[in-house]
Amino acid sequence: MSAFTVVAAIDWGNVPTWVSAIATSAGLIFLFFAAIVARRTYLLQDGERRRAQAQMEKAQAALVSVWWGSEPAPSNGTLHDPVQPQGTAEERPRIADCAWLLNASTGPIYRAVVQAEFRHSGHTAAAHLPVVLPGVPRRVLTEPESSSAKARKSASDYAVSVRFTDASGLRWVRDEYGGLTQLDPTFEIWTSPETAAVLEPFVAEFPHTYGVAATVESRYIERDLKQRFLDASPGPDVLVAPHDWLGRLRARGAITPITLWDEALERLSVPPLALEALRVAGQTYGVPSSLDTVALIRNTELVPEEPASFEEIIGVGEQLRDRRQVRGAIAIPVGRHGNPFHIWPLVAPVLAPLFKVDAGGGWEPDTVRLTSEHALTILSEVAQLARRRLIRTDIGAREAEALFTAGEVPYLISSSGPAIRAQRAGVAVAVSEVPGLDGVLARPLVAVYAFYIAARGRNRMLAQDLIPDYLSRPDVIDRFGGVTSDVPGSVVPLHVTAAHHPVLQRFHQLCTRGDVMPSFCEMDDIWTCIAAAELSLIAGREGVSQIASRLAAAIEALHRSSLGAQRSAR
Q: pTM for the whole thing?
């Protein structure tokens, strides 16, 4: 069969249908390629528009400048007057050197933070301006007297930078060298799961209040969080943690000082102990957010009256147990690793000398008193509590809270978290000081929780500005403690009012009466030594005198090692 015969045998249909099909297919192919071309053209044009927009925004941001020096003052003496001064430069008065800010752009800038570093003295200062309208240069800050008293070597001793948000919501930084960089509008916060629950509603506000997205990482419990943070690179931009971590974090270069401007300090209105706990060598390393301490928490339906002594706590608790109203007299968190912070009120007379400081603020432990007759008597009573199963390693913080909330023990020694949660669960709660084993009320140890700026964070400069501004807002400070007498907030606030829940008011009162925990670099090791002694007392395999002597030797060795490290650093 010939090829012509084969072609002729094919059913091509009628010619008009065949032509129409080809035309339709060609049209669809044309539309497909046209769509591709149109999309590529749109993307190119959109890219051009974005680049043009970015260039325009940077050009506007470039018109914001900051410098240190002298400047003619307006004739009316008002440095913020937008009217240009009259007369020649020689006729106008001169003022002392200071930091100047100029917004020469066409729109306002927001949340401007001007920071000056005085290299000849090691001091820093900052000024925060909520809004800066376009106009003439503004005098924003002068050198503190403590710094100006130092001899200046050259103009390069003054390093001035400014960070600001432009009218389109972008955050910029002009560094001390004049470089202009746009900041990424995101940062990450690391904290424990307990604190993360407190932060969630506040973090949700950041996109609306600052145009910034903050994420919270809370995978690690507090015991593991510190080491994870120290090992992370680059890690988060912000860490929320207690202040006794400060020494170790600072020694490892993991956090950076925070310069709080005067307005933020005034708005914070916090107890002096909160800021002092976060200061080292004249520098502030954190913004305080809440307080905490250890107290005696009691179920007022089971024990309406506040006990006068620890012996009364045991006696009342055991009577309730004998009547089968409860399973135990008291819950004291210990756990497998020990818990010196919670047992502190019972042994404060013994352990307090281990945290002594010398006249220069250095660590100078007094281990001699650790083996005194009074100290051995108190440690023997702790060992006796363990023999009576009132202190047990199988009861940690979680188990102790569960026993109290379930009504299985009338008393609990704990920080504020379990008391707050028990109150929310419907338990009638009262808070008081923990009576000492020697009949003397011990001053409680106080922890200050704070926001630290990570030294290795990608967007630490963004956090450096927004965290102090946000946490110093009165409404935020109030809401951290939950301003309501019906339901307690989640943490002990920096200050309380009559509107706060009584549980929070009482914890706050105890905090303001207490002693701030030390923040030596060696704090972790000190707590580890004390925890080991605590576990040995509970185990009961050694004499109390032997345990006290071993603890004294461990602290002395730690102190010698610390002194050796300081000499090597010099």
A: 0.80
- Residue 255 makes CB contacts below 8 A (sequence gap 6+) with 239, 246, 249, 285, 286, 452, 453, 454, 455
> How far apart are alpha carbons 561 and 522 in whole angstroms?
10
User: pLDDT per residue over 270-329, tens digit each?
Assistant: 788 888 899 988 889 999 989 999 999 999 999 999 999 999 999 999 999 999 999 999
Backbone angles phi, psi at 135, to 5 degrees: 165, -150
pLDDT tens digit string along 465-508?
Answer: 888 888 888 778 777 777 666 777 788 988 888 888 899 999 99
Helices H / strands E in the chain, number of each: 19, 21
Q: Is 114 helix (H, G, I), strand (E, B) or coil?
A: strand
Give the CATH superfamily of 186-285+449-476: Periplasmic binding protein-like II (3.40.190.10)
CA pair distance 397, 297, nearest whole angstrom: 14
Average pLDDT for the chain: 84
Q: Per-domain residue ranges for the chain?
A: 59-83+91-182, 186-285+449-476, 293-447+518-569
The first and second tokens of residue 127, run together, are 């000024």
CA distance 481 to 490: 6
Name the burial class of residue 221, with classes exposed (0-12), middle (13-18) and buried (19+) by CB atoms within 10 angstroms of its CB: exposed
- The structure tokens listed for 67 are 């410098």
Give 357's DSSP letter: B
Q: How wide is the angle at C-alpha 417 spanned by C-alphas 411 and 418, nearest 5°? A: 30
For 59-83+91-182, CATH number? 2.60.40
Which has the closest alpha carbon to 341: 393, 293, 386, 283?
293
Superfamily of structural domain 293-447+518-569: Periplasmic binding protein-like II (3.40.190.10)
Q: Which helix (H) or strand (E) holds 567?
A: helix 544-569
499 phi, psi to nearest 5 deg: -80, -15
